[in-house]
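Q: Structure tokens for this one, please.
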Amino acid sequence: MCSLQQVTDDKLFCTRDYPGSNFHGTHADLVYNRADVHDVCVGDIATCTAFDESKGTPFLIAAIEAGGGWHAGYEPNSFGGVKLGLSGVAMDLQYDRLDGHSGFSVEGSGVVPVFRVPRFRPKNDRLLFRLYAEPGLGYRAGDGPFGQYASAKALVLFGDKWINDRSSPYIEFQHRFPFDSLLSGDNRIAFGLLWGVCAHCGLD
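A: Here is the predicted structure, written as tokens:
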């Protein structure tokens, strides 16, 4: 959001330092290449579909999570950790207890948006459900089973349409497939809080 100052053949100039603005940072003056400008919305942000932050994958994410599940032998397990993501790729760092053994896992996965309901309405701040698929690869170190594994996850993110500058709760369902025994994996359910920055919002 900014106040338009000037438009030339190849540049657009605007500023976030104008009467009524809530901006208090530095570098208030912005310059954009006109070729990079896909859409311009003039007026109330609540009526602008160009500011649909619920669409696609957040540009930057950070999350904390914890949960539990069961192993192939129906032994219960528990875990906790963090999730960090950038441009549709996420990394999970977790400590767990599997079959009574402690371990640490590192996992990389894609974050692919599948669908969201209900559809985006600029003036309506209803609860939104977003589903993301997360295929990935990981490694579990420590006592007990696993080692290298493949992972299939589905993340359901709850919240309103505005992702930026607020936390959203989520539930994540996961099945891990150990490379040395694909049928002896485990199932896990995680509950967490995710902070996200949408692609066009910036980091201010």
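A few notes: The chain has a mean pLDDT of 84. Residues 44 and 122 are 10 Å apart (CA to CA).
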